[in-house]
Design a protein that fits this description.
The complex is a heterodimer of chains A (111) and B (114).
Chain A (H helix, E strand, L loop, with lengths): L3 E3 L4 E4 L4 E7 L7 E6 L6 E5 L5 E3 L2 E6 L4 E6 L8 E8 L7 E3 L3 E6 L1
Parallel strand pairs in A: 2-11
Antiparallel strand pairs in A: 1-3, 3-8, 4-5, 4-9, 6-7, 7-8, 9-10, 9-11
Chain B lengths: L4 E3 L2 E4 L5 E6 L6 E7 L5 E8 L14 E5 L5 E5 L8 E8 L8 E2 L3 E5 L1
Parallel strand pairs in B: 2-10
Antiparallel strand pairs in B: 1-3, 3-7, 4-5, 4-8, 6-7, 8-9, 8-10
Classes of the chains: A mainly beta (111), B mainly beta (114).
Chain lengths: 111, 114
């Protein structure tokens, strides 16, 4: 199993749609989880951290399922500006460690 | 506040030449990372510095790649005898510490080896 695995997509959705991405991770000791977004030919930018209890930031909701070792990102009321690649990020080992980035899921929102 | 900065933003070099890429992390961030991203590919971890600890060099693809960091400030990534397969965007990131904290990325250096 890869350390961090994502469906590469692309997910093609119309404006206003709700879309969800999942990401699975292999290390059960992982403790830090994030979603980043990366626009074409730009650097990745932190979208949100993922907390055990789940968290919401406007139209974005992140969930963590430790038992099944996956995290999810839900985007409601998609905007054209949401078109980007969404990277799932997990710390490589518990505690003192670097982050491992998934290869990303591409989202294309059309008018 | 100032984010992570990198220079140059673009670098075109001939095969066989050495290049040096620079990264200025966010002030106060003790952890610094270098990544490589080839066109259409994911991030490839290269090297990680945490304070004054020995760097984690496990991602460096060959001995032509090296990096230095002075204290908790600027870092340079050096690629010797560049090859065409080294063409990529080299991204630097910093974080408060290396204990799984979120990383903040610079805009990258786009390296083209001709």
């Amino acid at each position: 199993r890869k350390e961090v695995e994502q469906d590469p997509g692309p997910f093609n959705v119309p404006e206003g749609a709700t879309v969800a991405f999942n990401c699975t991770y292999s290390n059960s000791a992982s403790q830090s989880f994030f979603w980043y977004r990366q626009d074409c030919r730009k650097e990745p930018k932190l979208l949100m951290s993922v907390y055990s209890s789940g968290n919401e930031d406007g139209r974005f909701t992140a969930q963590l399922n430790r038992a099944s070792q996956y995290i999810s990102l839900l985007i409601r009321d998609s905007k054209l500006s949401d078109s980007a690649t969404y990277l799932c990020v997990v710390n490589k080992r518990g505690g003192y460690s670097t982050l491992t980035f998934g290869k990303g899921t591409m989202l294309l929102v059309s008018p | 506040g100032a984010g992570v900065s990198q220079s140059p933003s673009n670098k075109v070099t001939e095969k066989g030449k050495d290049v040096e890429l620079r990264c200025d992390p966010i002030s106060g961030h003790t952890a610094l990372y270098w990544y490589r991203q080839r066109l259409g590919q994911g991030l490839e971890f290269l090297i990680y510095f945490q304070g004054n600890s020995a760097p984690d060099k496990s991602g460096l693809p060959s001995d032509r790649f090296s990096a230095e960091r002075t204290g908790e400030s600027v870092s340079t990534l050096t690629i010797q005898r560049t090859q065409q397969e080294d063409s990529a965007v080299y991204l630097c990131a910093s974080s408060v510490t290396g204990f799984g904290y979120e990383q903040y990325f610079g805009p990258g250096t786009r390296l083209t080896v001709t």
